[in-house]
Amino acid sequence: MLAIEQYTRRLLKDFHPIVAANRPPVDLAPEPADGERFVRGSGGLVTGLSGLAQATGAVWVASVRDGLERELELGNGGEPMMVETTDGSRFQVSWVNPPRLVYDLYYNAIANPLLWFVQHYLWNLAEAPVLDDSTHRAWTEGYRLVNQLFAQQIVREARRGRKRPLVLSHDYHLYLVPRLVRRELPDAVIQHFVHIPWPTPQYWKVLPHYMRDEIMDGLLAADIIGLQTYSDVRNFLLTCEENMGLPVDLRQQTAFYRGRTVWVRRYPISIDVREFERSAASPAVERAEREVLRWRPEQLVYRVDRMDLSKNIIRGFIAYERLLHAHPEWHRRVIFWAMLQKTRQNVPEYREYARQVVQTARFINGRFASGDWQPIRLELRDDMNRAVAGYKQFDVLLVNPIYDGMNLVAKEGITVNRRGGALVLSENAGTHEELGEWAITINPFDVDATAQALHRALLMDPVERHARAEKMRAVVQQNDVARWISAQLQDIRDLVEPLAARQPEVATGDTIAVGREGSI
Ligand code: F6P
Comparing C-alpha atoms, which of 52, 37, 15 is closest to residue 82? Predict the structure, then answer.
């Protein structure tokens, strides 16, 4: 990260940067030792943003969530606090502390069961969603209120600094923040990055007018809207055009709203390759790997996921079941290891999904197990060292989401895998735009095609498998998180300092050469 840090600090020397995201960069340590209350947070957003926050020295505005965080009363003083994690990372966190019920409406009634669902096309529309007055209440008394609290905190942070505020707000939890901040800080540079897919304008129409119009009005107060893929950029612009009646320029990737031009750009998020490789070589991961080597079979199919409906875990199991049925030659020679973590258990759909995932795995094991061979090894745990051990050891990595913004599991897995493993990849994962050429592409809904893809991956000639793995690794190495950050900062600089007025700038380090791609 050193080169990117120097580059970032130079680019941002005239700004006071503030990052805002629902999740903080840290989690409470499961077994806190003296003075070590925090570990590095998990999840794609935190992975990408930690680099950005550290590189820019930005304050990170985040929400106090449930459980222990509340008991610690982190949000009390309103002053940012310096948090050090067990791995030595340091973050300045400024907490927003909404009342528990308000947070519940925002997170468990709007953000996850509505916005997440609409953006991943998760509904069976004949049955769901059923919207009513309670939805409207959750919107006004939950989602809108928490966004207001975030905006107030951001404005407070901005006013502490003497430079021009640069607000980097993130994801579907905070769609109203750009407008609320713009009202208070008309000169701020605001970029909002959406980590999850942007669906078609038609699908947005499942949501009521008041909600989708306020979302668009909120977002379009930003100067730049960042998305993961070309398809997201296109869908966003079409949503502006069709649902809002706005003029847009698909070639220039701009929308025009209330007399302002808004840039809509693609920045595919990634991982810190060097840091990830370092962690893969750590004693803790090697210990975990030795344990895996004690039981790993001839061929290991692997997946790591939160038990999210968008991840399509059940169809993945069904595809594997079909593989075992059609190809008994794989019995006892292959294990499908699924490392899954429970998530969002306050949302009924997630609880039910977790139940069905476990039930499906049990059913398949009941059908095919023989002797000491269990075809599926299901582990419900959140253990990064063990997950990385699995990354190093897989022969086939299954990444079959229904829709996914990017999917960093695919990038992490191919970066540290030691066996030239194959990637079976959904065409609807954002990362397919970068890795699809060398992965084995699947339609995630077609379980027979997925079974055939698994078979093909297991049988693939090792030379071809290694060559494909190498190609994919090279793509991730080139498009790593430093590039994600520098591409955004470059655009911010282009926005505030048009080309003609700019002093020539020499970038240091080869990780930060940025190619601007304009076609969607
Ligand atoms: O981008 C979607 C995202 O915010 C990811 O960063 C992360 O993996 C996931 O959703 C986390 O969701 P939650 O914070 O609800 O656990």
Answer: 37
Beta-carbon count within 10 A of 8 CB: 24
Q: How far is Cα 110 from Cα 91, in angstroms, rounded to an integer?
A: 28
Asked if 2-269+482-499 and 273-478 have one fold, the answer is yes
Q: Are 153 and 96 in contact (CB under 8 A)?
A: yes
Query: Does 344 contact ligand 1 (Cβ within 6 A)?
Result: yes
Of the chain, the percentage scoring pLDDT greater than 90 comes to 81
pTM score above 0.70: yes
Which of 468, 459, 424 has its CA nearest to residue 442?
Answer: 424
For helices 177-184 and 144-160, the axis angle rounded to 10 degrees is: 40
**Which CATH entry fits the domain spanning 2-269+482-499: 1.10.10.10, 3.30.1330.10, 2.40.30.10, 3.40.50.2000?**
3.40.50.2000
Give the confidence band of 161 by pLDDT, cuts at 50, 70, 90.
Answer: very high
Backbone angles phi, psi at 464, to 5 degrees: -65, -40
N-terminal to C-terminal alpha carbon distance within the chain? 30
pLDDT at 509: 34
Ligand 1 probe mutation, 45, 52, 122, 192, most atoms within 8 A of CB: 45
What is the C-alpha radius of gyration for the chain, rounded to an integer number of angstroms?
23
- The atom number, within ligand 1, closest to the CA of 48 reads 6
Report phi then psi at 139, rounded to 5: -65, -50
Ligand 1 atom nearest the C-alpha of 405 is: 1
Atom of ligand 1 nearest to the CA of 173: 4
User: Is the pLDDT assigned to residue 505 strictly greater than 70?
Assistant: no
**Of 19, 22, 23, best ligand 1 pocket probe by most atoms within 8 Å of the beta carbon:** 23
Give nearest CA residue, ligand 1 atom 6: 45
